[in-house]
């Protein structure tokens, strides 16, 4: 892991798939920024999500989806066009550590590390 970031959910009520899609966009922005800072192109970029809905959205052309989804899918596909998207089981998703209410000690001893 090179870098990590988390963000609070918006105050406006959103569906879980929409929140997961926003997380995928945050991941892509962070990955793009990290890649640009590395000053070399990695051979492959792997992105992971525990949302099969989001993975299905990302795999299709944005025009297939409603505007909210289409705009975010377009950003994902444009900023990291060659990324390899994969599914990760929710319990194995290290990105969810921040949402599980772990203390700093629990986080440092987390089994995924």
UniProtKB/TrEMBL annotation:
Pfam families named in the record: Peptidase_A17
InterPro entries xref list: Retrotrans_Pao, RNaseH-like_sf
Protein name in the entry: RNase H type-1 domain-containing protein
Source organism per UniProt: Trichogramma kaykai
């Amino acid at each position: 892991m090179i870098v990590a970031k988390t963000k609070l959910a918006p105050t406006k009520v959103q569906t879980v798939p929409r929140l997961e899609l926003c997380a995928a966009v945050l991941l892509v922005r962070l990955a793009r920024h990290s890649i640009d800072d590395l000053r070399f192109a990695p051979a492959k970029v792997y992105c992971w999500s525990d949302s099969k809905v989001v993975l299905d959205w990302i795999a299709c052309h944005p025009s297939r989806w409603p505007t909210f989804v289409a705009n975010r899918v377009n950003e994902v596909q444009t900023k990291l066009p060659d990324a390899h998207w994969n599914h990760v089981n929710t319990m194995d998703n290290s990105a969810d550590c921040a949402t599980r209410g772990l203390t700093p000690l629990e986080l440092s001893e987390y089994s995924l590390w």
